Amino acid sequence: MTAKTVFQRIIDREIPADIVYEDADCLAFRDINPQAPIHILLIPKKGIADFEAIREDDEAILGKLLMAVRRIAEILGLDKGFRLVLNNGRDAGQEVPHLHFHILAGRPFGWPPG
Ligand code: 5GP
User: Fold this and answer.
1) What CATH architecture does domain 6-105 belong to?
2) Separation of CA 32 and ligand 1 centre (Å)
3) Who lines ligand 1 at CB under 6 A?
4) 24 C-alpha to center of ligand 1: Å?
5) pTM above 0.70, yes or no
6) Catalytic site residue 102?
7) Structural domain boundaries in the chain
8) pLDDT digits (tens, 9 = 90+) for 40-57
């Protein structure tokens, strides 16, 4: 049996997190090591490791995640804008093998990203 990821442990309430949004399919909480004044992680409750692991029947969940981004931006009042990041795989620096968006806000962001 593979060990639970830290995000699965947050979903299962085994470790605490500062949760800002939750619905039947998604959970969002503050990053423990924030890279901006507002740094939220948004995850599907279904344990999808990365893009390679996405299946045809995950289409609805992917749409729900983007709708959750919209709701979180509204809840947190991110009216000056935000950066949405998804690190997928080794070269992108993905550390936790559970699909997640980073929602970053509260400062200007440069382009291209580092
Ligand atoms: P990745 O590099 O995989 O895209 O991002 C993983 C993110 O998870 C990092 O920004 C890291 O700070 C965050 N993280 C890792 N462990 C924990 C934890 O236990 N709690 C919270 N809230 N965030 C975590």
Assistant:
1) 2-Layer Sandwich (3.30)
2) 6
3) 6, 15, 17, 29-33, 41, 87, 93-96
4) 22
5) yes
6) no
7) 6-105
8) 999 999 999 999 999 999
